[in-house]
Amino acid sequence: MKSSAVRRLSTVLKLGQSPGTSLPETSSLANFLSASKEKYLSDVRATPSKGAEWTVVMGNEAGDLDSVASSIAYAWVQSEIHKKPSIPLIQIDRDDLNLRAENMYALQLAGINDPQQQLLCITDLEGVKPFPSTTFALVDHNRLGALFSSENPNANVVAVVDHHEDEHLYADSADPRKIAPAGSCASHVASLYPREAEIPRELATLLLSAIIIDTNGLVPGGKALQVDHSAALYLIPHSTLTDSISSSTLSSLPQRNPETLLGIPQIKNLSDILSAKKTDVSHLGAWDLLRRDYKEYTYTLNWHPSTPTIKAGLATVPVKLRSWGSDGKLEAEAQRWMEHQQLSVLGVLTSFRDARKFGKNGKGKHRREMAWLVRDGTDAQTLQLDDIASRLWKGLEANEELQVKIHKKMNLSKIPPTARARTYKQKNANATRKATAPLLKNIMELMG
Ligand SMILES: [Mn+2]
């Protein structure tokens, strides 16, 4: 009793010395993040029930720039404009923040120079069970993860802003509940930013960076939709890019055809840097490549007599399979990752540019491949390994959107007898994990 009172007192005094007892109105984005993290952690450590006073804002577990930027921006709006204490939680391990060089770069542009210290990561709450907060806002995904809902009966999702397939949850509790197509979820978050309030230039820059990376620089005919263009037009004049964009360009922005934004040299430059950082993963081996852009799903096999539940993972990798996975490397590291995560199914989805074939834009032609592994996991002891595998091959090969063909130059022969594997070339290079994840769910769960 006494020690916790002392701890509370020292917390108060410590916060009292810094300008952040209540979150300062004039603080930069980095100060806001550091102060919120410190206050949240001291709240839940000293008095776990205080966690209920906070809204935890989360992006998805892949931890890409879209998720990071959207969660930071949404938490800022809630805390600083609506005065509801909110904290962005990055759903990856602190040490894994480095795996995405493009995130580190964009965060630095936003004045967040030490994200490991300034951002609340899943590592900061390791071992805290049940999760100390009950109020959640979801951005860039629309289903609350099991880590936050298990043994947490009061868990409540109060907001959803997303651009993935709608799982139709939280219709009664979430407001806003905006789930609609967009190149980037950050565009939805920007569209919801109260126009009468000021947006810090660091925050505008962070959101703009996410939109640029998700839409290949807002390239015409690409992934950018109208909501992305409108968001970019709103953010550019508020961003730090205005230091170098000419005033005539800035004043002509409202009249500009949004399809031509890539014609602004500063936008093109930022886009080139971010995409170079994103695709330069030469320093990463198979193990890190499987983890760096990874999402996990739980499926109930309704077609199976005992309707068991299994876990599946989808790793997106920006390098072709043969560059990093040959000679049994993919088999070995995928097995290790599947055991580590207790997965029954792992899909490795590559997306890369073919240096030998040029596409329309003069860059290498965009290609995608898939490697799939099915393993006899503990959750699936009673299952027929071959039942799952043959269902998977059949479902993938029949799908008209993906258009897969067996990948003859990359077969995974070095798998143990307790596993099955198949690799494909994906003819439709535009179908991302956003298309593959719902397909996998259908293949695994639907009867028939
Ligand atoms: Mn996204």
3D architecture notes:
The protein has 448 residues and is of the alpha/beta class. It has two domains: 2-259, inorganic pyrophosphatase (n-terminal core), CATH 3.90.1640.10; 286-445, Roll (Diaminopimelate Epimerase, Chain A, domain 1), CATH 3.10.310. The protein has helices at 2-17, 29-46, 65-81, 101-109, 115-118, 146-149, 185-192, 201-214, 226-235, 247-252, 265-279, 286-292, 321-325, 329-341, 385-398, 433-445, and strands at 55-58, 86-90, 120-121, 135-139, 156-162, 177-179, 294-300, 309-317, 345-358, 364-375, 404-406, 419-426. Strand 4 (135-139), helix 6 (146-149) and strand 5 (156-162) form a beta-alpha-beta unit. The radius of gyration is 23 Å and the shape is globular. The protein starts with a helix and ends with a helix. The structure holds manganese (II) ion. Manganese (II) ion binds at residues 66, 140, 163, 185. Its cofactor is Mn(2+). This is DHHA2 domain-containing protein. One of its GO terms (cellular component) is cytoplasm. GO terms for molecular function: exopolyphosphatase activity; metal ion binding.
Describe what is shown at a glance.
This protein has helices at 2-17, 29-46, 65-81, 101-109, 115-118, 146-149, 185-192, 201-214, 226-235, 247-252, 265-279, 286-292, 321-325, 329-341, 385-398, 433-445, and strands at residues 55-58, 86-90, 120-121, 135-139, 156-162, 177-179, 294-300, 309-317, 345-358, 364-375, 404-406, 419-426.
